[in-house]
């Protein structure tokens, strides 16, 4: 029996809705880190009937955490794949290029081989509230062999912060005097508000003793350290997702809504800088993230 056209049309639209839902589920799983993009590509290549095969390449790449539309468009150009191309329609060479890109991106980036062995100066940077201070504090507690640099700042202490341990809390005049005397290894104005700087003397002394030194500083500072110490390793701490970063900032309760909004704006700029770093560590679990950072100090 042949279905009347209306029944066929209905069945067709139901199938289209189901396929759309399946593609949305694939994108959600990739953006949450539940599935890797390379595994989705392999699944599409294995079986053209899978919903993955009708996913556009640009949708797959755009689902990878921290790759926004601008970076995605740039990557599509570099891979020489048209934005409308679906996974199931890739040519052999296109598939190869995309697969290599995805596998390269997923492997945890280790400092490049040309670095002098055992360089001991490591910078830990990342967006506000990602957990830099928490991970650095865990390292201070559990890896006493690592010297954690104590920065100077002109911002006021938060409840529980101890002068000389969390920061050296200085007045503007005291901070200016240290700049004048060349006593900072680097310094920067962060979140368009307060100044932060790394006192030079303790770092140079610790490096001279062959100790590992960890600087927890902002992106501007990381760039200055790279200039002064090309062998330094720059590690970028990432949150599992943007929503988790927002939750941590608001949950921390150390800034009011206006300051939080300002810091989140800075965070977007900072996240875009991660490509300048030698390695990235995702701070899902503090002990695990701390272990990965320490491993990078001796890698
Ligand atoms: N350049 C530079 N940045 C620093 C230094 N110490 C801390 N920071 C950065 O200043 C920013 C603000 O730090 P803080 O006020 O503790 O805020 P939080 O990052 O939101 O906890 C963070 O990105 C820190 O990494 C430093 O010595 N130099
Ligand atoms: N892995 C994690 N899981 C959940 N919460 C975390 C994690 N790491 C840090 N936090 C919390 O997130 C908030 C921001 O951490 P903090 O160390 O102050 O960030 P940063 O120094 O990067 O600004 C704090 O409330 C901290 O307890």
Task: Identify the overall geometry.
Answer: elongated
The profile of the biggest β sheet is:
5 strands, parallel
Please identify, by name, the CATH architecture of the largest domain: 3-Layer(aba) Sandwich
- Tell me, rounded to a whole number, the average pLDDT: 87
Q: Which series of helices and strands comes N to C? A: HHHHHEHEEEHEEHEHEHHEH
Radius of gyration: 24 Å
Which cofactors or ions or other ligands sit in this model?
A: guanosine-5'-diphosphate, adenosine-5'-diphosphate
Low-confidence stretches: 108-119
Name of the CATH homologous superfamily of the largest domain: P-loop containing nucleotide triphosphate hydrolases
Q: Briefly note the structural class of the backbone.
A: alpha/beta
Q: Which strand order do you get reading across the main beta sheet?
A: 2-7-1-8-9
* Proportion of beta-strand residues: 5-15%
How many strands?
9
| Helix residue percentage | 40-55%
Span between termini: 69 Å
